[in-house]
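Late entry, nicotinamide-adenine-dinucleotide complex.
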Amino acid sequence: MSETRKVTIFGSGLVGCQWAMLFAAAGFQVALHDAKEGQAARALQQIDSQLRDLSAKGHLRGCLSAEQQQQLISAPGSLDEALDGAFLVQECVFEDVQVKRDVFRLLDAKAPAEAFLCSSTSCIMPSEFTSELPGRARCLVAHPVNPPYFLSLVELVPSPFTDPAAVQTVKETLVKLGQEPIVINYEIDGFAVNRLQYAIINEAWRLVTSGR
Ligand SMILES: NC(=O)c1ccc[n+]([C@@H]2O[C@H](COP(=O)([O-])OP(=O)(O)OC[C@H]3O[C@@H](n4cnc5c(N)ncnc54)[C@H](O)[C@@H]3O)[C@@H](O)[C@H]2O)c1
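Prediction complete; structure with ligand written out below:
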């Protein structure tokens, strides 16, 4: 397995770190970027520690060693450097529609023209933050399930403007990671995973509160 293509992880918190590890396990180069001073560097250290721990416990994904995977991940000093040469950007910032709008406007202006722009959002429909963009055809949601390193399901949610070819290429890329992407064919509140989870949680509460 030697995948030399580059991805940018935009937002290096919980989910950003997990995406970085998944891409590196499949041999992709990964550049981390975060708006918070020092966060991407801290994320690199956390990833290093997690990879060593996973390796020691026999849970490391992919064929590369923990050290080789760590070497594929970097935290460049500038956004331009982080985006340079990326074929896919995975956004992992706060779950706030205005933050997503600002970030996607920035990414559409700065990322390479051919790069796919994916959001990790758990429930915001992609048209809510991409419909005004010149590059809206390359934008879609790729919603992982926590913890993505161990749960392979990813919901792919295109907006009405997303190019079907972009959905297909992102899907094929995620399969290379060992993930199991499913495509939701239309935008719907909560996508599918949250709707199913909330139905189960509601029923559990109903059973508890029924007192029997
Ligand atoms: N945590 C989960 O269980 C989970 C599961 C699936 C999807 N998600 C989704 O993934 C996304 C990220 O969630 P998380 O749990 O990793 O959040 P988090 O708070 O752990 O990390 C968010 C990171 O984004 C950075 N950030 C915020 N605004 C930014 C900006 N404008 N530019 C660059 N970086 C910015 C923050 O500094 C932080 O490091 C959310 O959309 C969330 O809904 C989360």
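The helical segments are 14-25, 39-56, 66-72, 79-83, 97-110, 127-130, 164-176, 193-209. Will revisit in the morning.
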